[in-house]
Amino acid sequence: MTSLIWLGIWGLAGSLILTPIVRDVFRSYNVVDRPDNKRKLHPHPIPRVGGIAVLISYFVSVYVGAPPQANLSLVWTLLPAILVMFAVGLIDDFLGLKPWQKIAGQLAAIGLAYGSGVSINSL
What we know:
globular, two-stranded antiparallel sheet, single chain
């Protein structure tokens, strides 16, 4: 259990550090979501692909934050679901997906996660 707590701490720290860096890099390359006064109502352009920082933080937390004796089998079995969710977000950022396509991709990732043993038994 303490291994998962440390992984969470490393993941949070990595996200807090990397998100502003990724934001600034993609803003400088003009990879932003522009308001269109229809669906996108934000007041100024917002950088896309923030999921890159989260994905990198995931890998950094596994490689740096996990103690050598930790059993990380669940972390690795979740990798396909994580990559599908990342791909759905990335494709949506660059190409734009219809809502049903995005939900279908997210449901596929949920199915992969469930298939690898993740379940919620109570709330």
